[in-house]
Amino acid sequence: MRVDEIMSRAVRTATAGESAELAYERMRAGGIRHLVVVEGGRVVGIVSERDLGGARGAAIRSGRTVGELMTEGVATATPATTLRQAANLLRGRTIGCLPVLDETRLVGIVTVTDLLEVVGDVARKASTDARWKPVRRMGRWPRVSEDRRARR
């Protein structure tokens, strides 16, 4: 599976000169945790809810701009990036999102939440598959040690 199959195409953006407080209010109102910072059509950073101090970060945001609080040197993906590659990038860099670029044009964003939804869908399908059933013994679930002995 590729990133372009699960990414959000409606990417919310901000500019570096935008008020940090205004950016936070837009995130809160939109129920999102990341804004891609764009200048002249080029991705220059990411600002997250955490960067802006969250609900109790009014003092951090006060009088500051997005450019002062954003993270530069953004890891990105392409539409052809596999979900495994995207997950490895997110986990390896301990980040919550990847802007998706086609050449230099911003075409989407993929988040940890997007990947978890895919995992949840796969797990749900597996649990309804007739071939996969949990093992129960004597009307109760086995203890881990009992289960390990049974496998030997």
Task: Tell me what you see in this structure.
The chain is α+β, with helices and mostly antiparallel strands. It has one domain: CBS-domain (Roll), CATH 3.10.580. Helix content is 36%, strand content 18%. It contains six helices and five strands; from the N terminus they run βαββαααββαα. It has a three-stranded mixed sheet with strand order 1-2-3. Strand 4 and strand 5 form a beta hairpin. The two termini are 35 Å apart. The model has no long low-confidence stretch (mean pLDDT 87). It comes from Anaeromyxobacter oryzae. This is CBS domain-containing protein. Pfam families: CBS (PF00571). InterPro entries: CBS_dom, CBS_dom_sf, Diverse_CBS-Domain. Keywords: CBS domain.
Key terms for this structure?
152 residues, alpha+beta, CBS-domain, three-stranded mixed beta sheet, two-stranded antiparallel sheet, 6 helices, globular, CBS domain, CBS_dom, CBS_dom_sf, Diverse_CBS-Domain, CBS domain-containing protein
